[in-house]
Amino acid sequence: MGRSVLVTGGNRGIGLAIARELADAGHSVAVTHRGSGAPEGLFGVKADVTDAEQVDAAFQQIEQHQGPVEVLVSNAGITDDTLLMRMSEDQFSRVVDANLTGAYRVAKRASRGMLRGRWGRFVFISSVVGLSGGAGQVNYAASKAGLVGLARSLTRELGSRNITANVVAPGFIVTDMTDELTDEQRSSALERIPAGRYGEAGDVARAVRFLASDDASYVNGAVLPVDGGLGMGH
Length: 234
Ligand code: NDP
Prior knowledge:
Elements: E1 4-7, H1 13-24, E2 28-33, E3 43-46, H2 52-66, E4 71-74, H3 89-117, E5 120-125, H4 128-132, H5 138-158, E6 163-170, H6 176-179, H7 183-191, H8 201-211, E7 223-226
Parallel strand pairs: 1-2, 1-4, 2-3, 4-5, 5-6, 6-7
The structure holds NADPH dihydro-nicotinamide-adenine-dinucleotide phosphate.
């Protein structure tokens, strides 16, 4: 059955792969962008997840276009890496605002329609770093760990209404985000990945496709690593 889906940050990278995978599965898929426009074949809404008014306006457009959001994939995220000693409060807050408070904003707005429809799927894109930590990533890791508590609390609040909230924790996935890493960081990561390869956006997208499906109706409050074994299941 085709569902109404929103993927935040679905204009590129992992989000775009998720959006395409869900569109291929027969769903109506909307994506947010911040000015790049919508990728071909997907319904685009301009919204920055750090702004609750833009989020609300985006949901209204989606509701008119394809009905209330039934599957929310909260994927938009940023990094701003540096060691704690050098990290300004603004650097910390900016990353948490986009990655964690942004997820709260979209989840809250989506929950209304899901409750009314008595069906829903929340999928939050976290990171292996949220569970294992990462030097130079105090802000990013804190925001990604926060998504686990957020999703599990949602599970407790809404689990009896056919609504699930799960977390996907990708490892090293080749995108613009990882292009920013140095060759040394990249090869050191590869040495630690039992699968012996970096991940592709499609690896994450296929996991999200499962969690968004009716087949995953009894999977709730889970953290699903998609990391080639990098985090050993954590
Ligand atoms: P990219 O940097 O390639 O893409 C980030 C996406 O997030 C873009 O679509 C961007 O939009 C959007 N975005 C960022 N900030 C905002 C905002 N304030 N409001 C709306 N959209 C925003 O990253 P990836 O595709 O690699 O990452 C996607 C998610 O996966 C992120 O949450 C990331 O933390 C997570 N992840 C990635 C890993 C990797 O190895 N690549 C590993 C683990 C987790 P725009 O185009 O407008 O900038």
